[in-house]
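Let us begin with a simple case.
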Amino acid sequence: MMRYAPLLALLLLGACGLKGPLEPVPPAAMPVAQRGQTVAPTPAQMLVVPVQAAPQRVDDPVKKSEERPDDRFNLPPQ
């Protein structure tokens, strides 16, 4: 019986899928439009991450395994 437990768990987990679009709980309402906008954003628009929130890392200019140029400001601690 115990060896079938993971299979049973996967079947139960697969049975709880989404059946329709997400809606707020009845006493709550969708977010109002932001100041300066005439239309409130849709849930799909709110899930899009802006580029400024997740920028790409560009802090290491060396892309290949090569010798770094000499840095005159890289001094040992005093």
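The second case is a distinct protein. As before, the sequence precedes its structure tokens.
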Amino acid sequence: MFGILLVVGAASGPVEAASPASAATVVEASVLGANTVQAQLLAYLARGDIAGAIAMYPLQTGRAAPAWLTDLQVAYSVANQVAGRCQQVARFIHTAYGKLGQTPQYIAFKTDETKPYMVFELANAKHASVSRTGYHVAVRVGDMIHDAYTGPLGMKLSDYLSRLHAQKGITWAVVSNP
């Protein structure tokens, strides 16, 4: 079990979790046992290293990385940081984490305004358009929110809400479909 983390760390530097939640995922993956591909994938994802997970998969299984894993990499691309792409991005993220034994949830963000625009404040303090319809969806895995704007490490809900803006505020709820 510990060897998994050492091998992973040797390939791409020391294992550093980006947040307490991702640290818990790394620990959970190693404690669960298992010297499994699933545990290794979770360790890579906890570090935000999707490319490493995709490269590791064929080495461990002898098969090409599955579409849900490559779709996850596409979901986080900067090209998806535009209004109107959130539902497909959420489906990719939800599917991937579901395949990895997690319990992802769709989270819908809404604003009820005559000009229903939502923007997301990026790390560089610029604002990206998230929605022109007053509806945006992301995925919650544990206590982290994931979408194209958060990148593969995700973001705590409180931090996400502090960056998601609409003129008259935003409400959110767990929904069954994006």
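Strands lie at 105-110, 118-121, 127-131, 135-141, 144-146, 155-156, 164-165, 171-175. Residues 77-175 form one domain.
Keep these points in mind for the review questions at the end of the chapter.
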